[in-house]
Amino acid sequence: VSVSPCGRRAAWIDTDGRIVVITIPLQSTVEVDEERRLGEVDVVVLPRHNENKQPIDGQDESSLAWSPGGRYLAIEHIAKNQFNVISIADLGSPEDGSITVGRIAQATPDRFNSYSPVWGRTSKDAIVDLYSSALDPDNYSKSGANALFFLSDRDIKLSSGATSPWGTRAPSPQFEKSSCVHVLPLQTLDVLIEENVVNSFVKAPYGGGGAMEVTMEGFFQLNSMLELIESGATI
Q: pLDDT tens digits for 188-235?
């Protein structure tokens, strides 16, 4: 069983490969009869296909990854062409006490293998958090995951000194490293700025950009603002 980090949702795969999701009710809302059996609990079986009509047959619980808030479920499954892909299912907020299946969007293409999804935040977010907590500590709150990390074999590397993956008598190509980490930003820059204006200073080529891609001009402006605050001035 795969339990969400918030503790309100759980998912598992039945013997037919279907993905079953349950919302765990709060103790104050649970009805228990005299034999200590739970009352009505919301259980949903997810559709067998995503929006791209690719089949969703669960492999094992390790192929399921919950977002921190328990609303989204990343699913690793096998596409029609036998490549591993990752889809994201929107199940609604667990605070509603029920499951509302929304979009099941395919997050990775079926031209490469993609697997081992993990929800997280990028190094750019760490910079935004650092300045946000210093500039406005009273109203600062750390945001949740806004990026999906995963492994993929779309970038391959030849063995050292090799100019071709094919040997003189090799029946198949040989690669030294076939997988590397990729990250998929889940929010646009406009949305990030709307949630936290510091994102307008810490710019990167895309919403989930890394710390090394941040332009220095924004740092100079933020440091000037911090110096004004430390001197007692208002911004």
A: 667 676 677 777 666 655 444 444 444 555 556 666 666 666 666 555
Instruction: Count Cβ atoms below 10 Å from residue 181 Cβ, excluding itself.
Output: 10
- Each residue of 26-51: pLDDT tens digit? 765 555 544 445 556 778 899 999 99
Closest by Cα among 65, 110, 113, 109 to 89: 65
How many angstroms separate the CA atoms of 141 and 161, rounded? 50
Closest CA to 26 of 13, 39, 35: 39
Residue pair 58/78 in contact by the 8 Å Cβ criterion = no
Return the closest-CA partner of residue 22 out of 119, 14, 56.
14
Q: Are 77 and 55 in contact (CB under 8 A)?
A: yes
Output the CA angle 106-109-114, nearest 5 degrees: 90
